[in-house]
Amino acid sequence: MLTDLLSLVEKIPQEDYPASSRVHRLKTLDAYVKRDDELGFGISGSKIRKYRSLIPELRKFSEVFVIGGPNSNHVAGIVQLLIENGISYRLFLREGYGSGINGKVIKLMTPDSQVSVVSRDDWSKVESIAQKQAGPETFVLQEGGSVPASLPGALTLPLDIVKNESEFDHIFIDAGTGLMSIALILGMAFMSKPGIVHVLLLAGSEEGFIEKLNGFHKDFEKMFDVQCPFPENFCLRFPTNAKSFGATNRALFKEIQIVAETEGFLVDPIYSGKLFYEARRLIPGLSGSKLIIHSGGAAPLFGFL
């Protein structure tokens, strides 16, 4: 089924952005780590995967409206590629724009005249606000780039995991808007791979994730004109420490320090640091082989040092 999924994904136009990263054993955990942090720094880690298929779609439009938080890894990453490809864009950012590492990077690249700041009170209506200002040749890009056009690129993650016939009983991945974790779940289900995908929901609700999974499952079958069993190979989890999105504390930074000192790589306090904290708590109680997806995004760490 690996070759089946590969042939389907390769039918969709994609950029030649990195789609393969290392897997190696950890020293302080009975697990392996997939180093998607090595796929990019300015464009953080695994996000470059979904841009492989998203950018060819965005080139079809005269402008792109990008929706995101004021310190979004996604906004900081996609803006770089929009500029590189000469694609006109406008940002619709939640209030707080210009703060934090990513906020400063966004401000460095984008004139204020191209930014619409949306208040927290109006944030639930941000897509409607953007759509009202969009023309017929405008693509409104949802938070996190979570649109069907990003799915083929995101599916390079499960393909990359199994390309060397590696199989894991447990795979841990973090989720913000959730597309990368959903692509991993769908890809593994389509390839009939065993094991459970443990998704750490750092934003949103369980109901919202399931709704997105249902939507992308339909997109998968329609896009590739195939049947895909509805996945049951996943488990949704929430942080037990620094539970709110963006929250940090001493215990979390201790985890970041442990990973840096003993494993030799950096994790951030918003996504990957929380994933490693939870994996360290859960892995001793699980049997079989385990893999942690390090999705990247270490740059925000420097805003906390």
Walk me through what this model shows.
The structure is a single chain. It contains eleven helices and ten strands. Helices cover 38% and strands 16% of the residues. The protein folds into two domains: 2-48 and 149-303, Rossmann fold (3-Layer(aba) Sandwich); 49-146, Rossmann fold (3-Layer(aba) Sandwich), CATH 3.40.50.1100. It is globular. Strands 1-2-10-7-8-9 form a six-stranded mixed sheet, sandwiched between helices. It has a four-stranded parallel sheet with strand order 5-4-3-6, sandwiched between helices. The chain has 305 residues and is of the alpha/beta class.
Number of strands: 10
Helix content: 25-40%
Give a short account of the largest sheet: 6 strands, mixed
Q: Quick one: CATH class of the largest domain?
A: Alpha Beta
**Broad structural category:** alpha/beta
End-to-end gap: 45 Å
SSE topology string: HEEHEHEHEHEHHEHEHEHHE
**Structural domain count:** 2
> How many helices in DSSP terms?
11
Read across the widest sheet, the strand sequence of neighbours is 1-2-10-7-8-9
Query: Which parts are unreliable, with pLDDT below 50 for 5 consecutive residues or more?
Result: none
- What is the fold named in CATH at topology level of the largest domain? Rossmann fold
Which percent band covers the strand fraction?
Answer: 15-25%
Indicate the radius of gyration in whole angstroms. Answer: 19 Å
